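Form 7-S
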Amino acid sequence: MMMGIFTKRVCIGAALGIALCACDVVEAPTEPSSEPSVSATEQKAVVAQGEQLQGVKLQGIPLQGTKMLGYRFSGATLAGAPLQHVRVERGELVAERGSTTLRGTALAGAHLLADARNLSVDPPVNATVEYRISEVAPEAPQYDPTHTGHTFLYTLEQWVEDSGSWQLACPVDPDGRSVAIPLAAIWDERGNRIESSTLFTFGCTTGVIAKCYRWGYRPWVTGYGNLVTMHQTCTRVARADYCGNGVPHTHDGTKINIWDTLPPPGPIQSHGGLLPPLGMLFEAGWNTGGAVCLSRTRWVLGGGLAIAQLCPDRLLALGLIPLICDTIADVLGIDANAKIFNEAFVNIDLGQ
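Output:
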């Protein structure tokens, strides 16, 4: 079955089928008007993806070049009193103060400690960063395609010693807000999800961890299969992390059309029509380790990019033949468990 996929497009195998004739389109396409009916949980996903996982901005000279590891469950306080049993339950932060359980908006004003690490030096240097939650608000309904609720948005501020002031930790998102969503896991520099009993993640809504959560892949939701793996797969798609090594191959704001083949009550994200959005072409099928195979890349950088050569153990069969796919059937012939797919414009960066 694999050889059938390979021989379909051997003339462009070495370049992974990059379509150099396509033009650079930056606006969202017009949705097809002949859209089939969809379930209550389904929504179309012509969406803007990006490069950043967490999206947190570490500010201050001592933290230059430092990467966020995660926020500590320990050491949190509220109004000077310690908080116990801090945890993430579904999409909200929960803690105990004495005999009282605090959750949602009750944790506005809480102070948290986070761990960061500068990996550019040998040995790596660790740092402790202080944050406070200045505001908590419920998530907006349009970012809840599974209608499961329970998610809150947290406005985080970092204490910056250089200036002796609190500064927003998250960039401004398209809604004009600087907010983050808590998730009960952390991600390493290779983009791998790691379960932790000591650290959790606050993903800014400008980063792909929160974007994938908002697209409906909430890791704690049940009834759709394993949404932990779906969320992790989505983070690879959103960053164009073809090799699954944490290296993005895209630019912030690039439009893609993402959909899944989850069984009922899914899909969570639908394709949106029988044909691709105008100007978009099939790009890839995905699993937690990155692209299963490629039709083309969403960005042509410097005249073409042979992604397969960057991860030959993943995208080259027998070390020689690129894994090329143009359809869902092609993808499933390589990985029968792949459930996320995407289309994209082929964008040309003339500045590279």
